[in-house]
TrEMBL record:
Keywords: Purine biosynthesis, Transferase. The record marks 142 as: Raises pKa of active site His. It comes from the Bacteria. Pfam families: Formyl_trans_N. This is Phosphoribosylglycinamide formyltransferase. GO terms for biological process: 'de novo' IMP biosynthetic process.
């Protein structure tokens, strides 16, 4: 059984889906801890594993926060660290502690529309197809090696809200499927 630590910042819908999937022993992975960068509402889903809140404001520097985050996650000996709506960039110390083990989701077909405004940028550009990308985190912003992508059509009259809802569903399904697939690898 692969050990997963999930990092969150918000409502935790991806976390909830991973927890549901990992409650089935045949999934091959188990969420063993959840870490948030603030008192995130999504922590409520983590009723079967430890949770931690490491607010950046509580550390003298971003590097100190990054090292504390790495220490907190390391105590759970994760096979995979899943950024599920985690809205902080991970620093060099964290990434060095978990080489090739940190994955993230993004609501666009990378390398197009990286950053925090991917959905709005895609709409402003006028694309007819966007999607969600799952990728390995590296030192860049949404630049890591792509694991999987799923396409989502942009419909006439879409707003950020309507497109976000469809992207979120596709993103969550892809995340759960691919984490299961990654967990089944030897």
């Amino acid at each position: 059984m692969k050990r997963i630590v999930v990092l969150i910042s918000g409502t935790g819908s991806n976390l909830a889906a991973l927890l549901r999937a990992s409650s089935d022993p045949s999934y091959g992975a188990k969420v063993v801890a959840v870490v948030a960068d603030r008192p995130a509402p999504g922590l409520k889903w983590a009723t079967t594993c430890p949770t931690h809140v490491l607010a950046l404001a509580n550390y003298p520097s971003r590097a100190d926060w990054d090292r504390a985050l790495a220490r907190t996650v390391a105590q759970y000996k994760p096979d995979l660290v899943v950024c599920a709506g985690f809205m902080k960039l991970l620093g060099a110390d964290f990434l060095a502690a978990f080489p090739g083990k940190v994955i993230n989701t993004h609501p666009a077909l990378l390398p197009a529309f990286p950053g925090t405004h991917g959905i709005g940028d895609a709409l402003a550009y006028g694309v007819k197809i966007t999607g969600a990308t799952l990728f390995y985190v590296d030192a860049g912003v949404d630049t890591g090696k792509i694991i999987a992508q799923v396409a989502v059509p942009v419909c006439e009259g879409d707003t950020e809200q309507t497109l976000t809802a469809r992207l979120k569903k596709a993103e969550t399904e892809q995340l759960v499927r691919e984490v299961g697939r990654l967990s089944s690898r030897a």
